[in-house]
Records
---
Amino acid sequence: MNIPLNVDWQQILLHWMNFVILTGGLYFLLYKPVKQFMEKREAHYRELDDQAAGKLREAEELKAAYQAKLDGAEEEIHQARVKAQAAVQQSVEEQMAQARQIIAKAKEEAASSREQIIRESQRELRELTVAAVKKLTVKADTDLFDQFLDLAEGGKPHEEQ
């Protein structure tokens, strides 16, 4: 068989068969295991990514729950402050009312005491007036000028001595 350009079909066929065997062998020995390794690696990283996304969702849920608790606690603190302010205001009002009662009672007692002191001083004044009148009537027998001089000298009147 005379082939132009010295091409041997048998050699081409053998090279082609060697190439197919080599390609098939490399495919089964290298490509398939590398492809499986890459798929496992991709699945592993996809699983890690899914786990991270799940943990991120859990963290966001926890954050939302804690934020809700924090908001609730802040509201409770606000309500407690309002209640405390109301209690303090009520206590102040009660103390003011009690102070007003004490002041009113003290004014009544002062007025009563004042009236009693006035009555007592008027009684004492009457008694002193009566005593002075008695002394004057008793001493009317003596000369008033002599009595004045006796008192000015620091002595007692003659009748009392």
---
Amino acid sequence: MSTENRTKVIVPCRLSYAHLWEPDSVNGSEPKYSVSCIIDKKDKDTIAKIKKAIETAKEEGKGKWGGKIPTNLKTPLRDGDTDRSEDEAYGGCMFLNANSKQAPQIVDRQVQPILDQSEVYSGCYGRVSITFYAYNSNGNKGIAAGLGNVQKLRDGEPLGSRANAKDEFEAVDDGEDDFLS
């Protein structure tokens, strides 16, 4: 018998809506750590692994749904071209949102802890450990994506409305700040 977790996938992706350092509350819900994983549609291998893990989680979740898989089941993998068409970062990509009540470990390429919170942000690229599981809560049935750990692989253009200071200001020579006195 294999001890491998068939519902866990290491997902190479671009991070978006990254709330990895502090839990965030959505619409007054319990605060959770979360991230949106943007996966290039060309990465067919990762998408296939995610779909297989979701199918395994469906089979494992039958007990929560009265012994059969519901027809209107919500699943976490979504198409960025249709579900986030207004956001160019999601174009040509699939995505899923993962969350957890527990803080993820966040590491660099050498699996060393990243302590500087500015190093990991919405827009950088990395790998996220995700475990898919069944839920049945308040009449909602589906498969959720549980956030595990995060490994940053490389920088990327920051996402969101935060402007880069280099784009907003020019260098000022000494003595040119007379207007401040």
---
Amino acid sequence: MNSRAITIGGLNLPGHESVSLGPRHPTSAGLIAVTLQTEGEHVVTADVRSGFGHRGAEKLFEVRDYRSMIMLGDRHDWLSAFSGELSLTLTLENSMRLVAPPRAIILRTLLAELARIHSHLSYLSYLTTAGELQDRLWAVIEAVRGRFLRWTGNRIHPMLNRVGGLAVDAPDGWLETLDDLLDDVARLSADLRAVLDRTSRFSGLGVLDEEACLGYGLTGPVARAAGFDPDRRFDGYLAYSQLFRPVHTRTAGDAEARLGVLIDEVGTAVDMIRVAMALAAQTPGEVNIKLSRRLRVPEGEHSTDIEAPWGIASCLMNSRGGQTPWRVALRTPSFANVSALGKALEGAEVSQIPDVVASLGYTIGDLDK
């Protein structure tokens, strides 16, 4: 057997080969190193190392008050920042037995699914090559960012969630601007499906079956590709009891199935956003509850799960009754996915490493929290 060392993305380590999935793919941030044991061109074992960008955010939570800590949550999953905000905010609200106004709940659901579209399309960019389809995909991604910009003044980090609702309501006419965007997303999803159907390169590659999902704590699209679906939206948090559309699970558990689930989830997100738009139009009112300036969370442990784009994201908060948390721990799907990357690479050819990595999504902020 031979030993080879590679890095994913832009991490520059001595003696390591670099593997790129493209200059605009989410993995271009790098910070993952893999040591391979190979026989010929086939991977026998793969030892994956992360943590090069560790930020110590869970310790930083301990010196932030309950309002300002939401900003730290916003900066974990850079492709779905709204989900990071939501995990912390819902934990705070649940601990205080606080329910946001109905309109805020609907808009939060809409924004969570819009963030899911943004995240999934970013990873599905791997299926496109230079040309018209790639141009359309990135135009749609920029259009989604433009919608966040118009509402919040920020393309990537919306910082909309507040304890008790949202910072502000959607601007006048904002919801109506989604119609054309959603039409574009639906057409793009169909075209990406056609691209995946025309190739067999992902079939049988990087298999992670239901047993592996349970062993590595894999959820979200990775689990649904293996016939295992612990989707938290089934529980009906936010407004999902009114608009949730489940995705048909697959059983192959390979890269093709995972990419197929991503494409399907883009389509179901479009459907859910359309329903949420109709519900929002029928639900006027405030989007936040006025609270005292200094928040205190009841003593004890409080936890909440949400369904982030790549799976279950959990927040565990320990309060001693003060104005800052004693401890906050995050369970991020990126960490689980990268933990299973070595298993997924076993048996693949070295040249197929990018294809395997492309089907197991992660973001560095979420991974190296």
---
Amino acid sequence: MSKKVFIKTYGCQMNVYDSKRMADVLKPVGYEVSENSDDADLVILNTCHIREKAAEKVYSEIGRLKQTKEAKASDGKNMYIAVAGCVAQAEGPEMMRRAPAIDMVLGPQTYHRLPDMLKTAEEQRTGGRKSARVLDTDFPVDTKFDHLPEESEYTGPAAFLTVQEGCDKFCTFCVVPYTRGAEYSRPVQDIVSEAKRLVASGVVEITLLGQNVNAYHGELASGETASLGGLIRELSEIDGLGRIRYTTSHPRDMDDELIFAHRDIDACMPYLHLPVQSGSNAILDAMNRKHTREHYFDIIDRLRAARPDLALSSDFIVGFPGETDQDFEDTMDLVRRVKYASAYSFKYSPRPGTPASVLETQVPEEVKSERLARLQALINEHQLEFNTNSIGREMDVLLERPGKFEGQLLGRSPYLQAVHVDVSKAQNTLDVGGDNPYSGFMGKLVRVRISEAGPNSLKGELVSALH
């Protein structure tokens, strides 16, 4: 009889990919994915260390799972609790000490060893321990990608594909170099093979993932090195792959080949997430970003010259140690000049072990809150303006799932906008197949005329089915 695993994913898209691959690793040893932790034999919390109080949220969840584990034990059943991801990497030994209910702690680079960890945990449990004590947060010499099985069948038309991991940038606010390790790029052929399998399973859109995805420098079969732009060109040759996205980029690695990929390759979407973090050169220097606002503006100018319809998003940290009123106004000025289609903004919060966490020039909380409110108001204004300018336009939308109302499907525009599409009026005029009147549209790229716009989504009517 098969066992069940429940995986709860926190944080970034790369964790979403890792959670899927953990399920793939466990499938050959008899584990099926469950949507409910209460009936699982194994629960994995795949954690993220970027946001404030990330570890505390995990401990709270472990407290709840502990009760379930104890209730199962009283019925003679085993349940294992594993913590994976970046919090596990950063705080593994402390987590084992603080939460005895945890059986396994594993870092982002070691989840391919899960079957062996489970075997060890089972042996320890058989020996009489209520909880096992398995800790594996190494940075292996051999990459995990060399040991992962082929992916199980994907559901849905959009998928993530990790092409690069780790970071060599050492921004002073960030824990990623310490939790994910040094930059590593997968070989081009491995990525192309995985992408082909995804497309064969019905995937239309692939998002390439990396902590610094545009630092990609993967090996070609010839022994030469391909940049991210070169990789995108290779992937664009796959029949049936309609859309290619990538995230997250760093301004220091935005080269001409990648810019020209946006110009030359139709499948390369006209939307780019390019975090700047601050508009102040003084703060950028304190963050160790190794680029200036002028450099960033130059990149934007070159991108828009190559792809005039390109839309941008970004990340901002407000209240970094030492940020003055003028530094913040420089950020506001940068936002006004670039006019992002969307952006993520957060108050600075110290990450233990990072250089910025020990600076004595911390900004008062009330100042950070006031600045963040102003920045977000400006970003929201620009986002609504961008969405409103979509009204009357026709654009390709990838339909992914049912909407809230009868005859409505939800998809994504080329600019990652959520689009609610009314397909009910077109069901009799378009040959889409399927027993359900709307099922034939799911997973399809369709042409949509935008009729309404809100701050966070669009509405439109179906014009034609594409493929």
